[in-house]
Amino acid sequence: MAIPTRPLSPDAIRRIGVSLFGDGAGWQSRMAERMGYDRSAVTRWLNGSVPMPRHASLLLLYMERYGVPEIALGGNHDE
After folding, report:
1. Rounded to an integer, what distance in angstroms lies between the CA atom of residue 58 and that of residue 33?
2. Could you read off the pLDDT of 21-54 as tens digits, one per residue?
3. Is residue 59 assigned to a domain?
4. Closest residue by Cα to residue 4 from 65, 46, 49
5. Is 14 part of any domain?
6. How many structural domains are present in the chain?
7. How far apart, in whole angstroms, are the C-alpha atoms of residue 51 and residue 47?
8. 2 belongs to a structural domain
């Protein structure tokens, strides 16, 4: 797994998110919960208004490679 030097693009976030959490209703909420973020942060990343923080990018890439943990990994983050 390559360590990203820049934030994941909205397209990459969506691709990984859908592959991990399905493309049905609620996938963004499920992803936010497992990552320890508010759903509004995920929405901002996906619409490109706020870049995904590097540590969040690393966490999402980790989940892509090793799977989604049974419990949320992050704390409560705003962005």
Report:
1. 16
2. 999 999 999 999 999 999 999 999 999 999 999 9
3. yes
4. 65
5. yes
6. 1
7. 9
8. no
